[in-house]
Write a structure and sequence with these properties.
CATH superfamily of the largest domain: NAD(P)-binding Rossmann-like Domain
Number of domains: 2
Largest sheet: 7 strands, parallel
Distance between the termini: 34 Å
Number of strands: 14
Number of helices: 10
Low-confidence stretches: 328-338
Strand content: 15-25%
CATH topology of the largest domain: Rossmann fold
Strand order of the largest sheet: 3-2-1-4-5-6-11
Mean pLDDT: 93
Oligomer: single chain
Length: about 350
């Protein structure tokens, strides 16, 4: 059985969908602080808090069939991590150490970790491969890189095997509109542009139009959330076949600018996206594009939904038909994601 931490969130809920479709036994561990119970779609829930060691010990004691753990239970807002670093280090780093210790006590030695491109910091070259220097520019990036290093130490000391998957920009939604992206507040460019087009947000602000890119706006690598989920399932299979610890970048390998995203949202929705242009934000690189050659070569993984138009169409379909039970969007303006 796979224990999925943070399964009620955006990426976690799409992982659950794939596990259900694959007939893979699983259990969700979530406190529903940021996730949505309707997103579980029938997957069983163990309500607990990652920061409570008693909850961690109890879930393993009550479910001895668990053999793999997936972790999606992190705080992810870069700006908030700068303002409240302690919140991020407690939840994203120290709580994971408690989880690893609970796994050890239970004899569970396989861990799939949701990491991030933020571990690299300011890019020295693009596309960014796994060998790129790792110099995070935010406590969020630090909190994830610390866990990657902790996992290396636990492998050496205890034989705990892990796969860390470094996402670039997760986007899109279930093509059948059962689940989708719904953060509160929403800060990701594609859903913010969609919500602005729908009149549910006041508009978005483009931070910087003078970058050294074709149209002057930041370029990012958008990867469909279901393609991310598929890579996690491959990671589980790798670990269950006694595979060694691995670190992989996950992206499309192509970049799309902020203006390209907005234009695509307008084309798909048939609605204008209100926006205003502003100065650059500190710390926003001009380009963040992934090199995912290693995982393609090792596991044969490749994106099933690589086209920006498809990613936006799936996201638009979700927001247009959003079911009851999800949070209402908050007013927020964003530029490029990090």
């Amino acid at each position: 059985m796979i224990l999925v931490f943070g399964g009620a969130g955006y990426i976690g809920s799409h992982m659950l969908q794939l596990l259900r479709d694959s007939g893979e036994p699983h259990l969700v561990f979530d406190n529903l602080e940021q996730g949505h119970e309707p997103a579980l779609q029938g997957s069983p829930l163990f309500r607990g808090d990652l920061r409570n060691p008693d909850d961690l010990r109890r879930v393993f004691a009550e479910n001895p069939q668990i053999d793999v753990v997936m972790h999606f239970a992190a705080y992810i807002a870069v700006g908030e991590s700068v303002r409240e670093p302690g919140k991020y280090f407690k939840n994203n780093t120290s709580a994971v150490v408690d989880l690893l210790d609970a796994m050890q006590e239970a004899g569970v030695s396989k861990f799939v970790f949701s990491s991030t491109a933020a571990v690299f910091g300011e890019p020295q070259y693009v596309p960014i491969d796994e060998a790129h220097p790792k110099n995070p520019t935010s406590p969020y990036g630090d909190s994830k890189l610390f866990v990657e290093r902790i996992l290396e130490a636990y492998d050496t000391a205890h034989g705990l095997k892990s796969v860390c998957l470094r996402y670039f920009n997760a986007a899109g939604a279930d093509p059948e509109t059962r689940i989708g992206e719904d953060h509160h507040p929403e800060t990701h460019l594609i859903p913010v542009a969609i919500l602005a087009a729908m009149g549910k947000m006041p508009g978005l602000k483009i931070f910087g139009t003078d970058y050294d890119t074709p149209d002057g706006t930041c370029v990012r690598d958008y990867i469909h959330v279901l393609d991310l989920a598929q890579a996690h399932l491959l990671a589980v299979r790798h670990l269950r076949e006694s595979g060694d610890s691995r670190r992989y970048n996950l992206g499309n390998g192509q970049g799309f600018s902020v203006k390209q995203v907005i234009d695509t949202v307008e084309r798909v929705s048939g609605l204008p996206v209100p926006r205003e242009e502003g100065p650059r934000r500190a710390g926003d690189p001009a380009r963040l594009i992934a090199a995912s050659d290693r995982v393609r070569a090792d596991w044969g993984w490749s994106p099933k939904f690589p086209e920006l138009e498809t990613i936006v169409q799936h996201a638009w379909n979700w927001h247009r038909t959003r079911p009851e039970g999800y949070a209402s969007p908050a007013s927020e303006t964003v530029g490029a994601e990090r």
